[in-house]
Every structure is written in structure tokens, then in C-alpha cells.
Amino acid sequence: VHLVQSGGGTVQPGGSLTLSCAASGFAFEDYRVLWYRQRPGEERELVAQISAVGRSTLYSDPVRGRFTVSRDNTKNMVWLQMVNLKPEDTAIYLCKATTGLDTAWGQGTQVTVSA
Predict the structure, then answer these.
(1) Is residue 104 within 8 Å of residue 3, measured between CB atoms?
(2) Cβ atoms within 10 A of the Cβ of 34, count?
(3) Contact 31/54 with Cβ under 8 angstroms?
């Protein structure tokens, strides 16, 4: 069970980034995927999630309307598209795939929004 993240980096306020989460070693289509972020000194915050087949998505209030989560189970991939980024979006972003009984985490990727 393996998740590998890519994307991230540094952008100016108002900019965009897309994070990727690639799965291998398990039946990805059985897992819902959640995206979290963690700022230094703060608790991990759930920002978005997508159901196993991709029909249902949920977003936290701070990111709703700016972030979009999507997946392609034929490619074992999930993406988090982020637009109109704000300095407060600066954090390490992590993806998690879970069935409730089995869970895998990505390694995390840094997103920095700074002028």
C-alpha cells in the first residue's frame, strides 16, 4: 500500500497549484481519499475528500470554491487543484487513502504562498 505525492512549491498570492497523489499496491477504487494540511505548530486540518468512485466530494469552509479534488481510478491518481491561493494556505499537504479499516498516507508536500 503506497501513496506518492507530487506537485507543490511556491506561488504568489492568487496563484494556482495542483497536487498529485499516485497510488500503488492496493485496490485504489475501494478507498476514499482525503487531503489534509498541517501548518507549523497547528493540528492537521482536513481540507477536502472524495469518495471511492469519485461521485461525492467535500470541502472545508476555508477552501471551498477554491480547491477541487478529483480522481481517476483507471490511473490510480487523485489530484487537488488549488486556485486563488492565499498566504494562509501555506502548509504541508498530505493525502490519505482509507477504507476505514486500512489506511495509507502520502509523504506530504510543501505549499508556500508568498509574495
Answers:
(1) yes
(2) 20
(3) no
Distances in Å between the alpha carbon of 51 and those of 14, 19, 32, 33?
A: 28, 18, 5, 7
Query: Amino acid identity of 65?
Result: G
pLDDT value of position 1: 75
Distance of CA 81 to the CA centre of its chain: 8
- Going by pLDDT thresholds of 50, 70 and 90, the confidence category of residue 40 is confident
Gap between the Cα atoms of 56 and 1, Å rounded? 23
Helical spans, DSSP H, in 37-82: none
Question: Which SS3 state, helix, strand or coil, does residue 29 take?
Answer: helix
* Residue 100 in this model has a pLDDT that exceeds 90: no
| Three-class DSSP category at 88 | helix
Angle 20-21-22 from CA coordinates, rounded to 5°: 120
Residue type, 86: K
